Please model this.
Amino acid sequence: MKKLITGNEAIAYGALAAGIKVACGYPGTPSTGAIASLLTMDLPNTHVEWSTNEKVAFDLASGVAWAGHRVLCTMKMSGVNVAYDSIISTAYSGCDGGFVIYVADDPGTNAGMCEQDSRGFALMSDMPMLEPASIEEAISLTTYAFELSEAIKGPVFVRLTTPLANGFASVEIPEPAPVSQADALLIHDINRFTKAGAVICMTQHRDLIKRLAHAGELIEQKGLNRLDLGKKKGGLGIVASGVTVQYIEEALAVADKYGIDREKISVLGLRASIPTPKQQLSQLIDFCDKILVLEELEPHIERDVYILARKRGYAGQIIGKIDGTFDRVGEYGTKHVLIGLNKALSLNIPESEYKSDTTAEELAAARPITVCSGCPHRGTYMAINRAIRKLKLKKQDVIVNGDIGCTILGMNPPFNTVWNEISMGASIGLAQGFAYAGVKTPVLATIGDSTFFHGGIPSLINAIQHEANIVLIIMDNEWTAMTGMQINPGTPCDRHEKPYKHVDIARIVPALGVEHFWQINPFDQDHATDVIAEAMQLPGVKVILSRQECAIQAFRKGSKEGKKKIVRVVEENCNLCKLCISVTGCSALVPGEKVMTIDPALCRQCGMCVSVCNRNAMVMEDVK
Model:
């Protein structure tokens, strides 16, 4: 059966074709779609879950693999940082069941965060990494990754980048393999499963190195890396990995118009970038006068080309990042291959041939990045700003440390409230640091509910233990919203159909020993402002839980039930001062010729514009 699917879904189908027992991960664009698609399927013999964070997911997956069953663990590139302490340890110990870690990197930062190259982690860990060049290959290579993992008795990475992870293709969907019903293995072997002493650790390290070498042999036997030597010796050799392989033929088709000799072009397309296929690279180096290396972000393959070239006495030109042709920033396209061909072969291909390679930002209409209409975070940031004014403080003197997720949008107009971000849960530690550094004005931290569960709780415990003078505002919209409305431990049970236990932040925080704790509705601006102002004047750790369901999810539920309230503009009271839109930034507010208007398709009846207007020009009414 053929189906139009994304690369993320291809990873899921490839895992099902391998008969996985468990799939787990943490949401993070561009990898979210793999677990998300599995959760929509009826899989009675496979456990699928969103875990609390990537390390929890990886540890869970290690247990499955150590018990002899197949498991898929997914994360975005940033999640590898979170899980890496466990990744390197499990890599040392190895595993018995097939263990595949799917990671999605984001060259060009389409989804934000750092341009991190996860191949570096695989290199540090001596772990194989497979890089499909197409969505079809994402299915077959994921399935094969489980076989490879079991053959070498160690975990295997599968890496996609954003164009493949979120791209679409019509491909043949394989039948799911039966899930093994074998009993779980219980192997008591401290020499393998602990790090108790130098001898044990070094022995495991040697075993790990042998596993990677064995993986290289199996990958070569499988023929994953494809070397196509030209008909004539002495031309240009092109080395590329993953999705970059797809751009070569497109570029060569353009270069045909400028006299390129196809018989003197050789291509090594890598589907397994780690370990480096040294035998095939050596063949390419011996056959070609020049080498062009195409890889996004870090020059890992290129460094190996240089090392092999030096060993073989190669005197030809190597074109890539190290010689300055390409930089280490951004994603590749056909344009980069043409630039490389131009440099290597002096084809004089004009820029007009690849000028169409514009970025999404260049094509998009200019607009601010802000929260959705009706978002409860709007109310929270408005209340913070009001509290600062109420205490007669200068906004530039009150630092608000931000965190990952929808909450970070408080950095943008019209709020301009959040100053910084680092990583999941870092806002609380940052706030402590500023407090300990001697900041005399109130120090605030804002964090979302999913991020609080992911990485915020240890920092809060640290702040409580050391009695840090900070205000923590947990902005609880009950969902992991920015990545596509995944549930988290705090999502109430009546919000979804899964049999999960609800973990209530309102019970966790007081149980940790927080003496000053409030719960507010961000849409009740007077109360929210008063509470935040009070907290900013008290000593020690103060925690405010700002709770209201995500506007998108509330609207979905409300659209089924029908609107109960509407916001109406009282035209005779409106003088089009635009205070409502300048304070709230709500996209449902549209200035008319004489008065403000409200787009009914966008309005979520949150009442923020009503609370701002001082002329009673906005009123909330019951639907008649």
